[in-house]
Amino acid sequence: DTEVTQTPKHLVMGMTNKKSLKCEQHMGHRAMYWYKQKAKKPPELMFVYSYEKLSINESVPSRFSPECPNSSLLNLHLHALQPEDSALYLCASSQVPGMNTEAFFGQGTRLTVV
Amino acid sequence: ELKVEQNPLFLSMQEGKNYTIYCNYSTTSDRLYWYRQDPGKSLESLFVLLSNGAVKQEGRLMASLDTKARLSTLHITAAVHDLSATYFCAVDNNSNYQLIWGAGTKLIIKP
Q1: Which residues contact B72 (CB under 8 A, 6 or more apart)?
Q2: Are strands A53-57 and B105-110 parallel, antiparallel or unpaired?
Q3: Best residue of B93, B97, B101 to probe chain A, by most A CBs closer than 10 Å
Q4: Is A10 exposed, middle or buried (0-12, 13-18, 19+ CB in 10 A)?
Q5: Which of B41, B98, B102 is the closest to A45 by Cβ?
Q6: Which of B40, B39, B76 is nearest to B57 (CA)?
Q7: Termini Cα distance of chain A
Q8: Percent of chain B beyond pLDDT 90?
Q9: CB–CB of A101 and B101 under 8 A?
Q10: DSSP code, position B81
């Protein structure tokens, strides 16, 4: 199994809503990532979890709240988002933090904030 | 600070032609990756280059790495329409194991 699975694939939410993005991998990878990608731009790193602990937060606003319940799951909780937060949100995983950063990406969640 | 530059940023070419995408980076790194992204889709890992002189090939794509020149190339041979996509290179930031991404090259291959 070489897949990273993200749900939902599409999400439309209002600025007062609370929603969550989910990501799952069963490759035994111990690093998991959230990226944000705007159209025609490279992905921007948001968060890195290493062995289920948050190791990198790239100065992301607090309206984005990550959670790693176990080594296979990664969530991104969304609250009070702004229209400019509309983007493709990508989850990724890699084998061992710091040893092999080849990242395998999920299919992404296309988020629209209205 | 590690910076990654790709060129060209946009490339339109005819089927059957050869071309090369370049990825330059500013400081020492041990690892370089090439990814492909189709419109509205996720990122697909194409190549992992781990050492100086590494060369990898998959079908019509060949990637190489020169760590002394801090340069990687992605060469397309006899392009076909199915290779139309955006190609990103990403370089391992040795200090904190993050990936630093190039801006991407949008490749359009016309029949």
Answers
A1: B22, B23, B25, B32, B34, B49, B63, B64, B65, B66, B89
A2: unpaired
A3: B97
A4: exposed
A5: B98
A6: B76
A7: 36
A8: 79
A9: no
A10: G
Residues from chain A that touch B98, judged by Cβ atoms under 8 A, are 45, 48, 56, 101
Parallel, antiparallel or unpaired: strands B98-101 and B43-49: unpaired
Helix (H) or strand (E) holding B36: strand B32-37
Q: Which residues of chain A have pLDDT under 70?
A: 1-2, 98-100
Nearest-angstrom CA–CA distance, A78 and B60:
42
B68-97 pLDDT per residue, tens: 999 999 999 999 999 999 999 999 887 666
Which residue in B has a C-alpha nearest to residue A92's C-alpha?
B43
Strands ordered across the beta sheet of A4-7: A4-7, A18-25, A73-79, A64-70
Q: Helices (H) and strands (E) in chain B — how many of each?
A: 0, 11
